[in-house]
Structure formats: structure tokens, C-alpha cells
């Protein structure tokens, strides 16, 4: 596990909790979360503890799971989603994956986890196809709506390339986190705007560490 945050309002509709898993071998050029690639770079978190934390979030309407690649841990992901379905049935679940929909369905282990999702954003980030939509980094990625709850929450929301792309800043464990799906150039613009105010970003997740 990389980190968690509440409330999240920039990765799906409503008041959400965000969970970021640790570990991804897909390696999309231009990924803004290089800090989540190393599978040994996170911590081990019991599913029961995560579920208890989610059950205590006031006003929670949805959970977004990103990373890292959640489907590279298909059994724990499935167990977490099964628990969520049982304990918080009115809470929708959006999961981000760098695998295509076909690749997820081809793998019995990943397909087993996917059956518990309401919505999955699938496909690798492709910088030359950016931007994608409010919740997709690049236009090749697909917003797969899998359940009636997913349709109710996500179906009515405009998600095209012209859609608003909210970005949120969170402070967890003494570090600032940018939450959302930035459009091309957004990260540079934010960095330059901060520099003009005398704030230098020394260690950012979208550049390899020196
Ligand atoms: S965008 Fe997602 S799938 Fe692609 S390298 Fe980054 S974490 Fe992995």
C-alpha cells in the first residue's frame, strides 16, 4: 500500500476515499506516480484495517483505488472489494488499471477481482493521447461501467475531453499529494507558479529521483 486519503473529490463523483496501492511493472512513459512503481516501496496493510477505516469515513459515497497497479495484487484487491460490497453496499468503487479491459478479462485472477468493481478505468497512460476526460489521463483509456450503481453515479456525468478536470491537494504524513488527473502541462504550470512564489518542489513523483 502506498497511501490513503479522505475526502477525495477529484477522482470520481461524490465524497470519496482514495487508496493508492504500491507496485506497478507496466511503466507508462509520462506516469505521474513513479513513487508507486517499486513493489517494496510501500507498507503492508491488513484488509480488515482498511475496511474499518473506510467504514468510519463520514459521508463516504465512493472509493477510488489507484496506484501503482491494483490488479497486480488481484487476491487482496478482490478481498477488499468483497468486504466493501458486504459492509458498504451504497458506496461505489472505481478502480484504475493500466491493463486493457481485454487483458483484465483474459486473466482469471484479475477478472475475479474486477467482478466486484462498479467502474474501471482501463488501459495504459499514453502521453501523446492526453488529455482523456475528467477521470482518464489519455483518450485511449476506457471508462468501463460494470454495474447499475456505477451507471447511476458515473453514467450521467459528462466525461469527454472538454470536461472539467479538478485537481486537489492533500497533506498526508508530512507530504503534499496532488490528487486528480492533470492535463498535459498542468504539472509544469503548477511547479512554475509555486516557484514564482518562492516554493521549490525538490522531490516530485513525476520525475525519477536523482
Ligand atoms: S500510469 Fe498507472 S499503469 Fe501506467 S505506469 Fe503509472 S501507475 Fe503504472
Q: What's this model, at a glance?
A:
It contains six helices and eight strands, in the order E-E-H-E-H-E-H-H-E-E-H-E-E-H. The chain has 210 residues and is an alpha/beta fold.
Overview of this structure, please?
Its cofactor is [4Fe-4S] cluster. It comes from Frankia alni (strain DSM 45986 / CECT 9034 / ACN14a). Keywords: 4Fe-4S, Iron, Iron-sulfur, Metal-binding, S-adenosyl-L-methionine. This is Radical activating enzyme. With 210 residues, the protein is α/β, with parallel strands linked by helices. The chain has a single domain (3-196), classed as Alpha-Beta Barrel (TIM Barrel). It has helices spanning 47-55, 74-87, 101-106, 108-114, 148-154, 186-196, and strands at residues 3-8, 16-20, 62-66, 92-96, 119-122, 142-145, 167-172, 175-180. It has a six-stranded mixed β-sheet. Strands 7-8 form a two-stranded antiparallel ribbon. α1 (47-55) runs parallel beside α2 (74-87) and α2 (74-87) packs parallel to α4. The protein starts with a strand and ends in a 14-residue tail after the last helix. The model has no long low-confidence stretch (mean pLDDT 94).
Write the layout of secondary structure elements.
Elements: E1 3-8, E2 16-20, H1 47-55, E3 62-66, H2 74-87, E4 92-96, H3 101-106, H4 108-114, E5 119-122, E6 142-145, H5 148-154, E7 167-172, E8 175-180, H6 186-196
Parallel strand pairs: 2-3, 3-4, 4-5
Antiparallel strand pairs: 1-2, 5-6, 7-8
The protein binds iron/sulfur cluster (SF4).
Amino acid at each position: 500500500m502506498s497511501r490513503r486519503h479522505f475526502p477525495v473529490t477529484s477522482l470520481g463523483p461524490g465524497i470519496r476515499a482514495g487508496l493508492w496501492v504500491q507496485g506497478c511493472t507496466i511503466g507508462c512513459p509520462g506516469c505521474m506516480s513513479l513513487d508507486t512503481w517499486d513493489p517494496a516501496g510501500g507498507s503492508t496493510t491488513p484488509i480488515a484495517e482498511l475496511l474499518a477505516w473506510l467504514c468510519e469515513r463520514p459521508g463516504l459515497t465512493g472509493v477510488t483505488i489507484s496506484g501503482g497497479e491494483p490488479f497486480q495484487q488481484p487476491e487482496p484487491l478482490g478481498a477488499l472489494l468483497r468486504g466493501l460490497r458486504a459492509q458498504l453496499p451504497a458506496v461505489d468503487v472505481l478502480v484504475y488499471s493500466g491493463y486493457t479491459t481485454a487483458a483484465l478479462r483474459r486473466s482469471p485472477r484479475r477478472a475475479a477481482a474486477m467482478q466486484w468493481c462498479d467502474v474501471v478505468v482501463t488501459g495504459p497512460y499514453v502521453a501523446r493521447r492526453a488529455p482523456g476526460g475528467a477521470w482518464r489521463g489519455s483518450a485511449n483509456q476506457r471508462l468501463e461501467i460494470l454495474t447499475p450503481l456505477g451507471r447511476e453515479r458515473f453514467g450521467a456525468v459528462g466525461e469527454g475531453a472538454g470536461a472539467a478536470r479538478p485537481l486537489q491537494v492533500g497533506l498526508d504524513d508530512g507530504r503534499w499529494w496532488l490528487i486528480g488527473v492533470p492535463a498535459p502541462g498542468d504539472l509544469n504550470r503548477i511547479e512554475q507558479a509555486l516557484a514564482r512564489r518562492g516554493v521549490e518542489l525538490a522531490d516530485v513523483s513525476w520525475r525519477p529521483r536523482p
